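Q&A log
Question type: sequence-to-structure
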Amino acid sequence: MHGDFSNITFSPERGYSAVFDLQGRIGLDADRNEQTAILLHQLRGALADLMGPHAGPAGPGLGFAIGDPAVADFTIGAGRYYVNGIGVENPAETTYARQPHAVLDAGGADRLPKGRYLAYLKVWERHVTEVEDPALHEPALGPHHPDTSSRAQVVWQVRAVPVPAGDVPVETWVADWIAEAASAEHRGVLQVRATRPHEADDDPCTAPSDAGYTGENQLYRVEIRSGGTAREGASFAWSRDNGSVIYPVQASDGPVVQVSGLGRDRHTTLEVGQWVEAVDDAVSLRRELGRPRPAAPLRQVVDVDVDLSTVTLDAPPPAIDRRRHPYLRRWDHTPPGKSPDGAVPVTEAQAARKDAGWIPLERGVEVRFLAGERGNPHRYRTGDYWVFPARRTLGDVIWPHPQGRGPHGVAYHYAPLAVVEGDGVTGWRTSFALPLTHGL
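Response status: OK
Response body:
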């Protein structure tokens, strides 16, 4: 989630059950956010234990029934369903082409497969600010007051994938496909360190004399831009502010983009030479698909007019649709040489080579991607990310994973709904009986 957070501290391995505020202390956003994460982890874990990986309430409340298949569409029934303990709700019957959380090209790239296919439910959470949902803004604070909070939104989409012909039973193929889609393996492994840069600040009043990191207190984000393997051209961008610096777009004329503001201070403004991506609801709801590749192309800033609040880019951004809440997101990387997509290429190194493959970000912060096993390379997914804090008083990054770790997100959850062939539908939903009413 691209929020303006000081840190993201929740870790299920620690087994914490509550966060307690202490009297007279400074409150931290990370503490309050961890309490929410603890409760959600416990609640969703309990529901998954009781219901299994996916199920809905028995009776009329069982949602997401697939029906009336046609050449280009099918219906999606109203009701509730749970995927890995995460509840999703479809308030009214809809169709594949008109589902509320998907911006589909139902006649093009997202057209339904020919022949037999699996209709499945995909669930995840996305970060929402007042730019995407203006109702989050409190008018009493004034139009230019910084937003006070953001939201996590559970997103569901019904998608389809062809079921191949062959000797493998459909039941086996569906189970294997769902397991593979949900697997977090081979999505990449990142290591992070801080080394003393040549331009290090030697002021003993501001940082330890042996500090590797010499910047401010930041929450760094490394995010995959173009997916695939390293050999196929996977790339990444990074932000020192968790990708939270954004500029709402009002209009565009070719490469000139009108924004509603250029940041609240010098740390959040835009400068010539920086890189931005044009994002809207369609991009955020389709990012991992990487269509087009990448989903939201990076553009470089070539001019900034503070008086007019306009930004001139090196190429026109995708078409602007105000109904989809467009904005520019700032990234802080500098692509090496002529990058094909404006991002940094993913280069991998063997773990045994301790000093090989490190990619400098800034102020002593370095990252490296570890190579996968022979014959089983890492396949990076657009939108997957890692986050880590850096603290000036430590002169270091906080990264408790010396062996590296997989992405912190995005976590996608899958459930089979039905296998469709022609006008026939074989349902795959499961249900559970409500214990307080079952048998009455």
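Response note: Helices lie at 29-51, 170-182, 281-286.
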